[in-house]
């Protein structure tokens, strides 16, 4: 399967964001991509108030547009993430996998909230978003896709759990900051790929957005050996690469680290020698 990661400099102008995303999804499909991954908050990126006011449902403009692109172009679209309105209070940061017939295959709401200080800026996602509480995988062609979002990249136990559900490919739509991205983005992506012997499709925001966002870019596709297959170094654009399942199977056969795992020793209640 040929896959693409899309890189956008989103802001609070939803119409502009959707137009750019649609143009890049179409360009990636024209380049042969069968799976296209958008970044986190691709349709609307702003402060907590802007996100809350712009929250919408699965029947809203963002997912409606993504479903239309998938159907019209005959491709699978990972609609990065968007701010999903919730009747239960705070909205969720939700990633949606859409089949080539425009149907929703899987939904995942980000479970790790980005409550940190980075580059002198305080981020408190939990002030305006509610964490998800379940994992999600879905099919894209012959591949099982494990869904994650941005800050999730720092939690290897999530990726292990998705691996145990059969994930061969991980999607990481992100708005990863420049302050942390210059040191951590590539090493973390490669680590998740190498330790799970899986493909990682990391689509990042790029550039600045109000009020103080500055995203690192460098969207990339990494193979199960940790090799960067394709990358968007700067600016808006996309990058494509082939995801070779036979190559993945060969890596897992020759260096069977995934098979050598002993998870029973790390569960609560496991016996310990004296």
Question: In a nutshell, what does this entry contain?
Answer:
With 274 residues, the chain is α+β, with helices and mostly antiparallel strands. The chain is built from six helices and 17 strands. 27% of the residues lie in helices and 29% in strands.
Description:
The protein is α+β, with helices and mostly antiparallel strands and 274 residues long. The chain has one domain: Nitrilase/N-carbamoyl-D-aminoacid amidohydrolase, CATH 3.60.110.10. Helices cover 27% and strands 29% of the residues. The protein is built from six helices and 17 strands. It has helices at 14-30, 48-53, 61-73, 156-164, 178-196, 245-254; strands at 2-7, 35-37, 76-78, 82-86, 89-98, 104-109, 115-118, 121-124, 137-140, 143-147, 169-171, 199-202, 206-209, 213-216, 219-222, 228-232, 237-242. The strands form four sheets. Strands 1, 2, 3, 4, 5, 6 and 17 form a seven-stranded mixed sheet that branches. Strands 9-10-11-12-15-16 form a six-stranded mixed sheet, covered by helices on one side. The longest helix has 19 residues, at 178-196. It starts with a strand and ends in a 20-residue tail after the last helix.
Reconstruct the topology from this structure.
Blueprint: E1 2-7, H1 14-30, E2 35-37, H2 48-53, H3 61-73, E3 76-78, E4 82-86, E5 89-98, E6 104-109, E7 115-118, E8 121-124, E9 137-140, E10 143-147, H4 156-164, E11 169-171, H5 178-196, E12 199-202, E13 206-209, E14 213-216, E15 219-222, E16 228-232, E17 237-242, H6 245-254
Parallel strand pairs: 1-2, 2-3, 10-11, 11-12
Antiparallel strand pairs: 1-17, 3-5, 4-5, 5-6, 7-8, 9-10, 12-15, 13-14, 15-16
């Amino acid at each position: 399967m040929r896959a693409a990661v899309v890189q956008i400099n989103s802001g609070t102008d939803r119409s502009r964001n959707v137009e750019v995303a649609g143009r890049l999804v179409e360009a990636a499909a024209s380049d042969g991509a069968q799976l296209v991954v958008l970044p986190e908050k691709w349709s609307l990126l702003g402060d907590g108030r802007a996100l809350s006011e712009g929250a919408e449902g699965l029947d809203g403009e963002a997912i409606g547009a993504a479903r239309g692109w998938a159907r019209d172009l005959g491709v699978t679209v990972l609609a990065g993430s968007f701010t999903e309105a919730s009747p239960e209070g705070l909205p969720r940061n939700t990633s949606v996998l859409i089949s080539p017939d425009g149907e929703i295959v899987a939904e995942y709401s980000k479970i790790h909230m980005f409550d940190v200080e980075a580059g002198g800026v305080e981020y408190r996602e939990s002030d305006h978003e509610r964490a998800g509480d379940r994992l999600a995988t879905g099919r894209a062609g012959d591949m099982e896709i494990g869904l994650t979002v941005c800050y999730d990249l720092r939690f290897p136990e999530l990726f292990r759990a998705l691996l145990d559900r059969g994930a061969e490919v991980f999607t990481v739509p992100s708005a990863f900051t420049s302050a942390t991205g210059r040191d951590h983005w590539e090493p973390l992506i490669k680590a998740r790929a190498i330790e799970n012997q899986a493909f990682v499709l990391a689509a990042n925001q790029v550039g600045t957005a109000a009020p103080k966002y500055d995203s690192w870019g460098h969207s990339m596709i990494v193979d199960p050996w940790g090799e960067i297959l394709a990358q968007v170094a700067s600016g808006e654009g996309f990058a494509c690469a082939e995801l070779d399942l036979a190559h993945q199977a060969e890596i897992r056969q020759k260096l069977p680290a995934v098979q050598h795992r002993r998870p029973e020793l790390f569960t609560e209640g496991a016996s310990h020698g004296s």
